[in-house]
Specification:
single chain; alpha+beta; Dna Ligase, domain 1; D-amino Acid Aminotransferase, Chain A, domain 1; 34% helix; 26% strand
């Protein structure tokens, strides 16, 4: 223990000596050095030339982008009727009394959908299928009316068939373009779509359908009945006339349900330029 004390004592005295030296050096007056005033910067020679004033031109105003808006569902179906595009038996309802009246005219099973400002109904749980009784319909109605943006509920007869998508768009480069493809919720994944520029002929539409990878489905693959091709072609021609005559930005019928009896619009979205 005494050895440790000696070591720490010596180290402590060394530390004190170093501290004293630092204090002495810090207390010494600092010698004044000769002041060296900075030389004044030489002034640049006076310019005799007159500088021309330049006025900045105001920036060009950006082109006004046209506003777009989704046409309400009920109005969109009326536009389809105007161009003789078949739709399924349906009714828009806003209360349970209207629902009961609609169910007397539309046979079960029915599909019920949210209707309003919603664009993608499936993403908000806005489509309920296989409803087979009025009690189930009332329950579905209450659920759909709670969805944000819902203004009414669309009740439709549920029919079977091949789901297609038929769309149209007004493009800057080509003008009005119509598209057709295998539809349903997987349309953006499959991307089996054909396009043509308006105006369309029957030959154009037939060629579009034959370009599809899934054309065999339309012609009756695996023992299933072929769809009514004539009705399908006429529907696509009607969409072409619609986009040429109405002031719309784009539209799509998805799905267009097709079977041996015909083709029927089940859901439609129309965007109109303001």
């Amino acid at each position: 223990m005494s050895l440790l004390k000696d070591i720490f004592g010596k180290e402590e005295s060394k530390a004190k000596a170093v501290a004293i030296k630092k204090q002495k050096s810090a207390s010494k007056p600092i010698s004044k050095s000769k002041s060296t005033k900075p030389k004044k910067a030489e002034r640049p020679p006076k310019r005799t030339e007159k500088v021309k004033k330049t006025v900045a031109k105001p920036a060009a105003k950006p082109e006004k982008v046209p506003e777009i808006s989704k046409i309400p569902d009920q109005k969109a179906y009326e536009i389809l009727k105007k161009y003789k595009i078949p739709i399924v038996k349906q009714a828009f309802v806003k209360n349970e009394k209207q629902l009961s009246e609609a169910l007397k005219k539309i046979r079960f099973p029915v599909v019920m959908k949210v209707s309003g400002t919603i664009i993608h109904k499936t993403e908000v749980g806005g489509i309920i299928k296989n409803i087979n009784s009025e009690a189930d319909a009332r329950e579905a109605f209450a659920k759909l009316m709670k969805i944000k943006g819902c203004e009414s509920v669309l009740v439709q007869e549920q029919i079977d068939g091949i789901e297609l998508i038929v769309g149209a768009k007004n493009t800057a480069e080509f003008g009005n373009v119509v598209s057709v493809g295998i539809g349903g919720i997987f349309v953006e994944i499959m991307k089996d779509v054909a396009f043509r520029v308006c105006p369309l002929t029957k030959e154009d539409v037939h060629a579009m359908l034959m370009e599809l990878k899934g054309r065999e489905i339309l012609l009756g693959a695996r023992g299933k009945k072929a769809v009514n091709l004539e009705a399908l072609i006429n529907t696509i021609l009607s969409v072409g006339r619609l986009v040429e005559n109405e002031e719309i930005s784009e539209m799509d019928i998805n799905p267009l349900m097709c079977n041996e009896n015909g083709c029927f619009a089940v859901d439609v979205r129309i965007i109109k330029n303001k």
